[in-house]
Amino acid sequence: MRGAVLHAPGDVRVEDRPDPEIIEPTDAIIRLTATCICGSDLWPYRGVEKLDGPAPMGHEYVGVVEEVGSEVRTIRPGQFVVGSFWASDNTCEICRSGYQCACVQRVLMGTIGTQSELARIPLADGTLVATPAMPDADLVPSLLAASDVLGTGWFAAVAAEAGPGKTVVVVGDGAVGLCGVLAARQLGAERVIAMSRHAPRQELARFFGATDIVTERGDEGVERIKELTDGLGAHSVIEAVGTQESMMQAIRSTRPGGHVGFVGVSHDVALPGDELFMSLVHLHGGPAPVRQYLPKLIELICERAIDPGKVFDLTLPLDQAAEGYRAMDERRAVKVLLQP
Amino acid sequence: MRGAVLHAPGDVRVEDRPDPEIIEPTDAIIRLTATCICGSDLWPYRGVEKLDGPAPMGHEYVGVVEEVGSEVRTIRPGQFVVGSFWASDNTCEICRSGYQCACVQRVLMGTIGTQSELARIPLADGTLVATPAMPDADLVPSLLAASDVLGTGWFAAVAAEAGPGKTVVVVGDGAVGLCGVLAARQLGAERVIAMSRHAPRQELARFFGATDIVTERGDEGVERIKELTDGLGAHSVIEAVGTQESMMQAIRSTRPGGHVGFVGVSHDVALPGDELFMSLVHLHGGPAPVRQYLPKLIELICERAIDPGKVFDLTLPLDQAAEGYRAMDERRAVKVLLQP
Fold first, then answer.
1. What is this model's ipTM?
2. Closest to A257 (Cβ–Cβ): which among B102, B232, B265?
3. Which domain holds residue A190?
4. Which residues form a coiled coil (chains A, B) (predicted)?
5. CATH number for the domain including B122?
6. Which residue in A248, A333, B164, B184 has its CB near the most CB atoms, within 10 A?
7. Neighbours of B199 (CB within 10 A)
C-alpha cells in the first residue's frame, strides 16, 4: 500500500509500505476513505520534535472495515467507522471514567500511521464507532474532523466548562481552536470570542458561531478580553496552541474560579506556580478523550446539525501529502484532507 | 494595644501598636478572643519572602465585635465572629460565584495583622460570619481553625473533588493538610491516604479520618500510591505544601482525569507543560475562598460534628508569639494558638 513517511524534518514521502495485517485478535484492518494532516504533525516536520529514524505519519482516519481479528465482537467488515488517535479498550476503569485517551491498554495511532491506504486499528471494538449507515460523500470531511480536531475542540470546551450564560475565549485559530468555537456554541455558550488575526479563519470562526473576534495577542489580547468582560476575565478559555505565550494568555484571560481547557500539545511550557496559584483558575487538558464524544459527534454530523468538515480548506490526493505539509507549515491551509 | 511585628527574618516582637480605628464606613473593630500562627507566616519569618520594613503579622482571627462603621448593616457589636484572611464584600460577581478570595474589593488581612488584641475588619458585613450564640470556650480553637486552615483544607478537598467512592491522597502533614484529611472524610471520601513521617501528625491524621498512612516521599511516595490504587493513581489529591517536589508528587499521584486541589502557597514552582498535558489531571487551587465555607463549618463545629481545633498543639499568650514562631519553624508544633 501507499503511505506517508517522514524521513527528516521537511522531508515527507509517500511510498510503498507493507500492507497491515491482523496482529492481535482484537485488531481490525480498515481501508481509509479519507485521512488528514494534523497541526501536531508539524512539530516533527519542523524538527521541534526529534525523529528516531523514518516515521510513518498520521493518526486521523475514517474508512471501511476490511477484516477483523477473531476476538472482535461488535465491529464488522463493511462498516464505515471513525476512531480516535488513541486506540482504547473502552472497558477499563479509566475508559469508563471517560478518559479513553489514558486507557490502560492504549496504543497511539501515530505510531502506526494512518496517512495511508490501509491501517491496522488495535482494540477495534473499543476504538471504532460505526456510523448508522454508509455516509453521504459530503459528510466524510466532517466525520474525519470528528476523529481528532472536532473531538479535541469538544474536549477543550468541556474542560473549559463552556455552557449557557458563559463567555468563552478561544486562543488559537487552527482547526482545533475553530472546532472549539463550534463546540462552545453547541454546549450553549452565550458569547464566544475567537482570537485571530487571519481573515479567512475569522470568517470560519464566525461561521462556527463566534460572536466576537479579538485580533490582539499576548498582554494586549488579555487586556482586550478584560475590557469585554467587565474587567473580570472570561468564564471559560480554550487554549489550542501549546506555547508558553498562549498558555499564559489563556490563564490571564480567565476570571478567578473560571476554567481553562488546554489542548495545544505543550512545547517548552513551564507554568509559574505563584501566578497559577493567585489566578484561581481551573486547569484541565491534555490529549483529548475523543472516543468519549464520538457517538454524540457522529450523531450531530449525520443529522447535519454541525459542519466541522469546513476546517478542511485543501484536499489533495494522498500521493501529494508533501505539498499538504508545506501548505499547513506555511499557514496557506488550515487543514489538509488527503484522499488515498 | 499589643501586636506581633516581624522586624527581620527570625525576629518577631510583640509590641505596642496603635489601636485600630474605623476607616471606612463598612469596617468593624473586633477584640480578638484567639489568633494563631500560620504555616505561611513562616515564609517571611524564614526570609524566603522578602520583608519591606517591619510588618504586622497574622491573618487568622475570631473575636467579639466592639464597634461597627455607619454602613455596616448585619454585623453588630457584641457578636462573636469568624472571618477569613481575605476581607470580601460577598456581593460582587466573583464573590457570588464562590470566590470571595478574589472579591473585586478584597483586602488581605495579613496587611492589617491579626496577631494582636484588636483588629480592623474591612467589609465587615461581607467578611464576618457570626456564631448563633456566644460559643463555649472549648469551641474557640475549632472556630479559629475555620478562619484559615480548616477553610483552606476544605477548599483543597472540594477542588480535589473528594467525595463518595473516591480515594484521596493528602500531600503535606501541616495543619492545612490535616484539615484536608478531615474535609475529605466529611465530604464522603471512602479512603484517605495521609502522607506523613511524623508519628504525632500521623495520629492526628488518623483521628481526622485517614484510613492509610504513607511515609515515603517524592518518587517513592508516588510509587506507593500507585501500588495502593491498582496502578492507576488516586482520584483526588490534596497538595498542602507549595514546593516543586510536593506539586509534582501530587500531580504524579493522581490518575488521568483525577483532580489535584493545591493550597500550599507556591514558592519557586514551575510546572512542566508537557507532563501536565500528558497527566490529564484537573488542577485547581490558590488562596482558599474560606468565606464560602464558613457558615457550614461553623455549623459543624457548633454541633460538635468536627473538632479541627485539635491542630493546635501549643497555646501561648500573645506576648510569647516569638516562641510560637520558633516552635513552628522547628516543627516542634503543628500550629500555635495565641491568646491576646
1. 0.96
2. B102
3. 152-285
4. none
5. 3.90.180.10
6. B184
7. 9
